[in-house]
Amino acid sequence: MDLGNLEPLVTARKSLRASLDKSKALAAALDRAGPRLDEIHHRLPSLEAAVRPIRASKDALLSVGGHIDRAVGPAAAVLRVFDAVHGLERPLLSDQIRSDLAGYLSVLKRLEEALRFLSDNCGLAVQWLDDIVEYLEENSVADARFVAELKKSLNLLHESRASEDAQSRVDGGLLIASLERLESEFRRLLEENSVPLSMSPSQPSDQHRIIAPSLIPTNIIQKLLLILERATANGRLERCVSIYVDVRTINVRASLKDLDLVYLEVTAADIDSVRSVETHIERWARHLEFAVKHLFEAEYKLCSDVFDNNNVRSECFATVAANAGILAFLKFGMTVTETKNDPIKLLKLLDIFRSLNKLRLDFNRLFGGKACLEIQNLTRDLIKKVIEGACEIFWELLVQVELQRQMPPPADGAVPRLVSFITDYCNRLIGDDYRPVLLQVLVIHRSWKQERFQERLLIDAVLNIIRALEQNFEVWSKGYDDQVLAYLFMMNMHHHFYKALKGTRLGELLGEVWLKEHEQYKEYYMAVYLKESWGKLPALLSREGLIMFSVGRATARDSVKKRLRGFNEAFDEMYKRQTNWVVLDKDLRERTCQLAVQAIVPVYRSYMQSYGPLVEQDASSAKYAKYTVQALEKMLGSLFQVKPGRSASFTSPQQSNGKFGSVVVSPSKYSTSPTAVV
């Protein structure tokens, strides 16, 4: 091939190769330019937005700056206060509260002021931001997507402010944490300064109201007041009230714990008769007075010192009193009213009424508010039941005494314990201790029926009971088969009425003539008793036909033996018959025995001195000279003694309304505190 012809081909090949290399270079350049073009494509919208204000109206562009400044100013102020809030976190969460409560409260007030500023101005700042966004949107000053993002952020702000935990979102829960620390300090101050009161054995019990001193020092109360001020300002007063009630309730309970108030838990089913809880009622009266005049008086004063609001003060005190035990005292009184009726229950009901009436002014002052409605209702119900129960028993007494008339007389001829009990009982009812209380109860009860009650009605009712007793022993005396025992019984009864009532209030009402009549009847029946019993024995020692000069010695001896045998038999029979008879009064017993001795012994002594030698020389003299003078005196002097375990109670086969039965009174309690089982 001609080399000359190949040269153009070589040149063309080189040209093609160069073109190919350039194409490759251009392709590579295009590959590198692609991402840049994409970047430019993505930047075009923002560039468009950046230059858009230039396309907005001149007025819109001129005013947008003012709108932005007005919106940014409040927002910047809010941010500065927000930063200040977080600057208070350290002192509020430190232990400064114990050592410097006033300083802590000062910092807390700054926090409250800052939060109030934020609360007041956050809305304003958001409103300004809303306005500028609206302006930007309406005047197309900003890109639509940019405005949409701003709207989204503002919506989040609105939702945050409307939520329940908006406050904690602002301060991170700092205010709540600070208030909780304040409440803990409130509890600590109360607990460390609450000391239980103790009831002294010689606790004063006068009629004057006792103003108990404050149980918490004044400087501590001032601190409590400062804490309550901040709690009230932040709507957390109820929390502090709850803390106060818890702490003070525990303290009052601790004060009452040492009194051993287990008896307050007794139920009516646990009580056989009011006598079984008689000592409990006495303790109840003392403990209730201590609780009201000392414990609850102090709590009332403390509530007044700590709480300014009357409603809060009343509610707080009422809750402490109810939770601490005042209701238990009142419920115990209700339990006593539910026990079965008997005479002693009347006295105990009067004791309860006296205690409540003594504390009436204190109850009205301490528990008179609306918050103490439960205590008021229970107290009112208790007083009503006490009055109704006392009146029912009192008016039933006469009926019960009359029912005892059907009983057989006491076998020993002694004064029935019913009589001893009732005479002493009536004396107590109209004595200075119970008469004013009973009269007040009867007056109140009649007033409920729109009726009047005068003291004379009370006196007449009691005197009717005594007159019924008189009729009783007249009837009982006719129930004896042994008339001599009937005389002894009447002697006992008349002596009891005279001696038991003389010098008493009841005796004064019955009158001196009435008492003298009983004394005279006592003397009369004593004389009749002696005449019809021991007075008949001296006649058996007749001296008739014993003049030894007119009859033989043997005949005289036989007559003496016969008469001594008759005397001994009569004496033994009478002594045996009267061995179980009783004269309770020691003076009357000794006098009766002495009169019996005087009726028999002198005659017997003289007879034995004159005719004793006739039989003493006989081998069977012991059968006739059976007693020495000293033996007779000793035997007669031992009569009418009170036997151990003697029981002269009456058990009624018929009970009025099933409320009363027998009465048993300890002999040692005739003049003090009669005890009855009914």
Radius of gyration from CA coordinates:
55 Å
The major sheet is characterized as:
none
Low-confidence stretches: 204-213, 648-678
Instruction: Tell me the distance between the termini.
Output: 163 Å
Helix percentage: over 70%
Could you spell the SSE succession in H and E letters? Answer: HHHHHHHHHHHHHHHHHHHHHHHHHH
Mean model confidence by pLDDT: 80
Give me the secondary-structure category: mainly alpha
Q: Which word captures the global form?
A: rod-shaped
Query: Strand percentage, roughly?
Result: under 5%
Count every beta strand, where a strand is a DSSP E run of 2 or more residues.
0
Helix tally?
26
Function: Component of the exocyst complex.
InterPro entries: Cullin_repeat-like_dom_sf (IPR016159), Exo70 (IPR004140), Exo70_C (IPR046364)
Family: Belongs to the EXO70 family.
Protein name: Exocyst subunit Exo70 family protein
